[in-house]
Amino acid sequence: MRLKVCGLRQAGNILEVAGLEPDFLGFIFSPKSKRFVGEELSEELLKSLPASVRKVGVFVDQSTAEIMQQVRRFGLDLVQLHGAESPAQCAELRAGGVGVIKAFAVGEAVDFAALEPYAAVCDYFLFDAAGPQPGGNGTRFNWELLRQYALPVPYLLAGGIDPSMVAELAHLRLPGLYGFDVNSGFETAPALKDAAVLRRFFAKLRPDSVVLPAPATDAVRASTPSAAN
Ligand SMILES: O=C(O)c1ccccc1NCC(=O)[C@H](O)[C@H](O)COP(=O)(O)O
């Protein structure tokens, strides 16, 4: 199962988590989020990460021009859209050469018909719990609602996933399920992930993989004051 860790920004923490070899790392570019990358995120560090860790920029109702500017600046592989972005905007972004994950907030039901226009213009979907914020609410939804999923787009399951759910996730079988997205359930502070807890979580969901400690690259020595000497 693929794993995405979302909402990082601090250099040392990014390297620690990247060392666990997640399939995706997410960075929040929506200024209203408490995980907003602000000025802290290092372009050099992101560009130094292995290609196997796909870098995802998370946006909420931002213009294509603004999104593409960040894609180029940080070398993002995919963008994840958490607002009311249209299929036309998804197509426009894809034509710009970036992969697209369209997020949908799930409440009491999933409107599968509303997803159909997005199917041809997105690489992945992400199903998240509806809540007061466009993402990162820390609550789960009824995953059984996805039992009726029949579109050809693979999706990430998100919303309130925490370490206590690992056994349930390991056995979860849903049509189209591609992986899990984790965020606030693994934080010690906003945007700061607990790498030790993530390591154990990953090991249980990917029992065959060997995860080595993160290398101290030149990029992190340059961007982490405590590691500079
Ligand atoms: O995490 C945020 O602060 C956030 C803010 C605005 C849009 C999206 C955001 N997060 C996107 C994610 O992919 C989260 O991992 C997802 O919403 C699940 O978060 P959580 O419920 O905390 O596990």
UniProtKB/TrEMBL annotation:
The keyword Amino-acid biosynthesis applies. GO terms for biological process: L-tryptophan biosynthetic process. The keyword Isomerase applies. Its EC number is 5.3.1.24. It catalyses: N-(5-phospho-beta-D-ribosyl)anthranilate = 1-(2-carboxyphenylamino)-1-deoxy-D-ribulose 5-phosphate. PANTHER family: N-(5'-PHOSPHORIBOSYL)ANTHRANILATE ISOMERASE. Belongs to the TrpF family. This is N-(5'-phosphoribosyl)anthranilate isomerase. It comes from Hymenobacter lapidiphilus.
